[in-house]
Structures are given as structure tokens and as C-alpha cells.
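User: For documentation purposes, I need each entry recorded in a consistent format: the amino acid sequence on its own, followed directly by the corresponding C-alpha cells. There are two entries in this batch. Please keep commentary to a minimum and don't merge the entries.

Assistant: Recorded as requested. Entry 1:
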Amino acid sequence: MLQEMLHQAIWARSLTAEQMARVETEVVERFVPAGGYVCHKGDQVEHWIGVIDGLLKMSSDSPEGKTVTFTGVLTGGWFGEGSVLKTEPRRYDVIALRDSRLAFMPRATFNWLLDNSIPFNRFLLLQLNERLGVFISLVEYDRMLDTDARVARCLAALFNSYLNPSQQRQLQISQEEIGYLCSTSRQRANQALQVLERAGLLRIDYGSVTILDLDGLRSFDAAG
């Protein structure tokens, strides 16, 4: 599955045969069990990381013990490019919310692609821009929106074609996992999902959520 995931990645589609061969040789696969740390805040960053199969939460704990969740990373997503580019310690924790298989690209391989592939550079520019948009939205909905709207925007963010490219409109995710990603309880996430279902934006099934109106989720505001 590692090679299949690499070949399906958006950034890999324009690589030459030589570049792809090096990527396949140097990227390694690792397994992280549910609840395990993929990486810790403060770690030196030596890899760009992709999700072969699984679900990750990117978050940070304040000195007072408050957890801020930035985003989720699903199958097909890659993260950490900013920290690799800046060669600085990682500024967030990444935790596996379920058993996850991950692809680790060494910094040397990442930098070699930067030096040798214009399409790879273009992809990174677009990915960084998309991630910035997600984080700006995070500040907005954390400060201005109620829980129902926050859950709607959080789910919508999981369907970004650059950050989580392989996702279909049906997302295999539990309500507990949604709660972790949206920084709320499973019970409150369930209530929000029911509100969104009644609004015709999604359908709740056992262990999954099907998105019916992605634009509606992105703009949902219960107060409006």
C-alpha cells in the first residue's frame, strides 16, 4: 500500500521516473497504534509525513492544560512541510486517533525534490496556502461560532482536496473521533451532527458520516 499511496499523491504525479524511484527507495512506512504519538511538540523535524491509512489529530497543549486542536489528517494527507522548510522544532503534537500506517519521507529526500522538481515546489505553495486558510478559519470559528457551526466547519475542512485528497463524500469516522477533532465531547458532537442532518447537510450512519452539501457545511452558521 505504501507504493500505491505514493503514486496516488498529488505531488507525485508530475515527478520524473528517476525522482519517483528515489522517493520509493527512501520513504519508509511506520505503524502507530491508536492513542500513540506520531510526533511531539518540540521534536526536531526530520521527516515529511503522509497517512497511508488512518486518522491523526494535530494539536497543542497550553501551559494551563488547555488543548487546542488545529486539524485532522486523514488517509492520503501529508503534513509538516512548514516545519521541514524552516528547520525548527515541531510546534504541535500529532496523535493517532485510530491505528494508523504512515509514510515518512526523510528531510534529505524532501529537499532534493525541492531542488529538482518545479511541480513539487508548486504543490507545496498551494498546500501551504490551503493550510493557512484552514488555520485562519480555525481562529474564526473558535472565537465566533457556536458548537454546531464549529463541528460543521471542522468536518468541511476534512474535505480539502489538497490537504486530504483521497476522501470521498462518505467519511468513515466515529462521533468520538469527531469530538476529538472539534474539541468537544462525543455527546455534544452527536447533538451537532443531528442539527446538521436536519439541515440536510449530511447523513449520519453507524461509524460514518456522508456529506450531502459541502458548501453548506462550509458556510453553516446556526445563528444565521
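Entry 2:
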Amino acid sequence: MSAYDLSPLLDRLEALRDGKYAAFNANLVPGAATVAMGVRMPMLRAIAREIVRSDDWRDFLEASREHGVYEIRMLHAMALGGAKCPIEEKLGLIDAFLPFVDNWAVCDGLCSSLKPKKADRDALFRFVLACAESELEFRKRFGLVMMMAHYREEPYLHRVMAAYRAFHHEGYYARMGAAWGLATLWLFARDDALAILRDDLWDDFTHNKAIQKLRESYRVSEADKALVLSLKRRKGGT
């Protein structure tokens, strides 16, 4: 049990509370078990940077890991991503936190906060690849989003696309992560991404959602948008 006192931080967040934003956030992040206070992201990022620069950031992580306030959980994700420590320690901290991630925003906040150093990229990739193979919804989403965001080049890209080919999950947010990831990876591995759609590897929802994401992208050509539309599955058949 950590001796770190979260009370001053909670008081600080309370002073930054925005009721309207809390209501907006509740609609944006449905299903989260945590309670949102309504503190805006730029303020949370600034606080996370302060935590990372402090001498007791490890104590903060231990104290905040299971906390029931959304902003505390998001600060944990941001501080964990930005913490300076050996990769072995970082991976252990991520592994300990992922069971408590219950929404896409904290999951993706962790992914965007992680900036792997060159020397750490292989070890982190092995970890996220294993996460992408997990049956746990947000651990799988973490793996998929991390690969999409940070491993879009060789020697990783062919293994990333193999992991996407093998995707299967019934969780909504895992499926959305796969669809978003494929639409992004199209720009780096078009033929592999197209093959996933042509080979009918995914369930109807994820397949069609990926096509929707591709058609919404400003970076996909009109010809490719027409091509993937022809691959959309219709109700009652392909």
C-alpha cells in the first residue's frame, strides 16, 4: 500500500472541475467505471508533466492505479507514458495498469504518451504484440493502437500486419481499435490492408467499420475509397 496522499491532487482537480465538460465526457467515454470530474485535457497534461518531474512519481503510480476518478486514472496513464525509467520497469508498470483500463480514452491516452526510445523499441514491440493477442478487450486495443501509432515501418510493419490479419474479438472497443488501426496502416501497407478486407478475415462489424474509417480519411484516394466501398458487406450476405 502506497503512502502517497492523493488528497491535494484531488482538491486541485476539484478546483478545475467543469460540470458541462464532465457531462460531455460521460457521453464521449460511455461505460467507464470511473467517475469524471470534468477537467480538460490540457490541464491534465500539464499536471502529468509535473508528476513525471517529481521524485515520487512511482508512489503516485502505485496510489492511483485503481482509483475511481477518471482524471486520476488518466493522469496515471500520462505519467506512466512519460516516466523516465528502464524499459523493463516501464513494461512492468504498464502490465500492472492495463487490468484497470476500462475505457478507450485512458487506453489511447497511455498509447499517445508512450514515446519509445530507439534502444527500447524491440522490447516494447514484443510486449505490445503479446497484448494484441490477448483476449482482454482493452489490453488487445492497447496492443493494436500501439502498433498502429508507433510501429508503422520495417522491421516491424510486416509483423504488425500479420497481427491485424489475425484479429478476432467480440469487444466493441477492440473492434473499433482494429478498424481505426487498419485505416491508418493503409497509408503504410496498402496492399496488406486491402488483403485483409478482400480475404474476409474479420467479422462484419469490424470489416465495415474499417471501410467507413477509410472512406472518411482525407489521406485515402478517391479511387481507393470506391474500391473499399465495393467490398462492404451487406445485410444478408457479402
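Summary note for entry 2:
The chain is about 65% helix and 0% strand.
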